[in-house]
Amino acid sequence: MQEGIMELMWRTSHVSGGNAHYVEALYEQYLVDPNAVPDEWRNYFDQLPRPEGSTSHDVPLSPIRDQFYQLGKSRRSTQAVSAADSGENKKQVKVLQLINAYRFRGHQKADIDPLDLRSPVPVPDLDLSFHQLTNADLDTEFQTGSFFLGKDKAPLKEIVQALDETYCRSIGCEIMHIVDTEEKRWLQQRFESVRSKPKFSPEVRKHVLERLSAAEGLENYLASKYPGTKRFGLEGGESFIPMMDEIIQRAGGYGTKEVVIGMAHRGRLNLLVNILGKSPSELIEEFDGKKVIERGSGDVKYHQGFSSNVMTPGGEVHLALAFNPSHLEIVAPVVEGSVRARQDRRDDPAGDKVLPINVHGDAAFAGQGVVMETFQMSQTRAYKTGGTLHIVINNQVGFTTSHPDDTRSTEYCTDIAKMVQAPIFHVNGDDPDAVLHATQVAIDYRQQFKRDVVIDLVCYRRRGHNEADEPSGTQPMMYSKIKNHPSARALYAKRLVEEGVLSEDDAKAMGETYREDLMAGNHVANALVKEPNTELFVDWGPYLGHEWTGDADTTFDMKRMQQLAAKMCEVPDGVQVQRQVAKIYEDRRKMQAGGMGLNWGFAETLAYATLLDQGHPIRITGQDSGRGTFSHRHAVVHNQKDGSTYVPLQHMADGQPRFTIHDSFLSEEAVLAFEYGYSTTAPNHLVVWEAQFGDFFNGAQVVVDQFISSGETKWGRLCGLTMLLPHGYEGQGPEHSSARLERFLQMCAEHNMQVCVPTTPAQIYHLLRRQVIRPLRKPLVVMSPKSLLRHKEATSTLEELAHGKFHMVLADQGKLDAEKVKRVVLCAGKVYYDLAAYRSEHEREDTAVVRLEQLYPFPKEELYEALKGYTNLEQIVWCQEEPLNQGAWYQSQHHMRVVADMLHNGLGRELKFAGRPASAAPAAGYMSVHVEQQRQLVDDAFNA
């Protein structure tokens, strides 16, 4: 195994040839004491991959390692046998238990609170007496077991001192909840080998001080220039800036090409200027009221996103800070979606090239449920991103008036992360060296194991929740301490001066130089690339600057369409298809051959097939997306022999675009936010989220409110996400009827999104194709049907698919004499088929039924064209299944009245309503009531 590692090192230029023996000696020294080698070599050795099949204690077995671990292991085994019943052996066991106790509970004794406000927690497990040891045993030598002390035996006092230094100083490690032994031992080795305090070179520490000076300098400058103005400053948590700097540089050294960051407003401006390289002069202009975007509402400066490129040891890295509203943690799954899209674009399933970083607040991390949902998705097939680096800026006070007893029921705000066995490093924000070490271990762990990791940066907030708030009114004890507490920069500068790393004048000059650059408007981020490599960017150029249009050429060559239709129905002989699914596929073959009318599932699937054929990748997720909630899609075929799956759309052609379809875990909020993030990073994709029932989207209402409906007007952020929301009144009760159409329409303005209610297979086919074929990128909300999936009247032809288009309005399909028509019933969705059946049954040739297939943007011209032939029209009725106070009525009636008056003046006053009476609930829970209401509203449409 040693030969394997040496070979790996020899393959790189700086350790080749005559340097090999020197490097091997260094490595052997590192294995005994990582602090004994220069920090640049320690970093190099820390990041060496393990040989395949090895465990952390196998990391390459030099003769020294072999002596300490193999011979020592053999001696311990022999001693254990010979002294099985001896008192010495019993005490040896107690020593090993003591070591384990420090690993489990040392964090509770650790010095992680800069203000020393943390109430001490009694930890009897760490007392010698708890383990039946006494001071008399301190000079006795004991086996160290797996504790990384650098030697096989040591006096108890030396073991205890090493344990205390490792687990009870400025870093509190929570790692023992991790089940995987390899991960746990790897982490133990990284902390125990250097006593959680590696020796950094003077150059590294000077750089840390410079970044602390930058963090403090920006806050002081803004405080003096804009006193009392909201900025949600970083004072008290300045170590966050050197932490982020180290993460990006170290990740770049691993070969990372993109870093996507999500965070709320605390410290955001500091990150923008000092890490991402936003021009200080631009920030000042925003403080002075400059508009960031010309069209739209815009947003406050501490919600803005940004992107830039920086240089790292591994090359240029693209940084992207996600736009984020004040809903704090909701940005976390958005970041994950954006990262997954970038990884898919780079064909990077392991997550080596794109790193997600989510920055949290302590109270929000503990309190908001989307945090749990985001952790839960971290290792699932549909949403994994190779591990996320979570940073908690822990102010220990939440939102000024809170107390930990009121903000959580757990000891730490980070305890939720244990659900996915993420390691958690609590680190004192006033000890930048400890922060740097925790940061390095965290990024190395993520790169090594591709799992989430949490850094809890325990700090404080020097001012209130915002700069206009006075926190001492509710936090008198905390803020009496903060008032006299030196900053992290001041403490670190003093330490470096005392240790002779630099002089007081040097430390002072750092701050002065930074302020001069700031006042001059110079960029103050290190390693900023002024002429970035644009190949690292997502190219939105083809999709910018397009005005709204409802038209798109969605036609498709008939012969090629039939070839694709046949291909998407092919299932290999080795896949045994379940009986009902086999019937669906057999019917689709008949539809492809023209022997049956096309149903919804066929048309939708063919839309995907044609888009793939035209080069557009597709991603579909939802709780039942593989088969479709109502079993209409069956894009995923499950082999009845062995449970394996086959997806015909993934086998349409060699080299085809990616087709991804996943059944999601039981979440709406995090999943929809993820898909939003994905769609904002993949403009050429069709990205679809399907609700199990339409009303389930209300579990993700914040995503619709803060991102989907308003992201463009607030931030200029385009998005082509498609939401399929099953909607229709079929007697399934209040929770399974309405996708809350009224809510979407209430949010519609400025052509921000599309709300459509297709009623035929051809319509959904062209609607899905239009969403990608057009260069326009707007969210699409589809009120998707349930009973229409198999309705005998809801069919289409191959010709309608090949040569048609999406019609925003469908004129009356009956053979009516236009001059005899006195009444027009307008409707949307499934109720059309009830109305058509009533008219046919009662032979009402005086009434036309017209469908609005798109409710927003409202198709006034198309509706006028559908109605203008009825020259003797006396009344227009809007018929809906939803109650009066819901559905489209209140948000759309003014549009209908305008069109009516275009036909002849005053007709708009004759617009009437037919539907269910106003109701607090979306629908009746009793089938008998549902049936009577449905009968009545259809009758009212023709006779009221």
Automatic annotation (TrEMBL):
GO MF annotations in UniProt: oxoglutarate dehydrogenase (succinyl-transferring) activity; thiamine pyrophosphate binding
Classification via SUPFAM superfamilies: Thiamin diphosphate-binding fold (THDP-binding)
Cited InterPro entries: 2-oxogl_dehyd_N, 2oxoglutarate_DH_E1, DH_E1, KGD_C_sf, ODO-1/KGD_C, THDP-binding, Transketolase-like_Pyr-bd
Presence of keyword Oxidoreductase: yes
GO CC terms: cytosol; oxoglutarate dehydrogenase complex
SMART domains: Transket_pyr (SM00861)
BP term (GO), one: tricarboxylic acid cycle
Enzyme Commission designation: 1.2.4.2
Cofactor(s) required, per the database record: thiamine diphosphate
Keywords carried by this UniProt record: Glycolysis, Oxidoreductase, Thiamine pyrophosphate
Cited CDD domains: TPP_E1_OGDC_like (cd02016)
Reaction(s) catalysed by this chain's protein: N(6)-[(R)-lipoyl]-L-lysyl-[protein] + 2-oxoglutarate + H(+) = N(6)-[(R)-S(8)-succinyldihydrolipoyl]-L-lysyl-[protein] + CO2
Residue ranges of domain Transketolase-like pyrimidine-binding in the record: 598-791
The protein's role, per its UniProt record: E1 component of the 2-oxoglutarate dehydrogenase (OGDH) complex which catalyzes the decarboxylation of 2-oxoglutarate, the first step in the conversion of 2-oxoglutarate to succinyl-CoA and CO(2).
Quaternary context: Homodimer. Part of the 2-oxoglutarate dehydrogenase (OGDH) complex composed of E1 (2-oxoglutarate dehydrogenase), E2 (dihydrolipoamide succinyltransferase) and E3 (dihydrolipoamide dehydrogenase); the complex contains multiple copies of the three enzymatic components (E1, E2 and E3).
Family, per entry: Belongs to the alpha-ketoglutarate dehydrogenase family.
Protein name: 2-oxoglutarate dehydrogenase E1 component
Organism of this sequence: Halomonas salipaludis
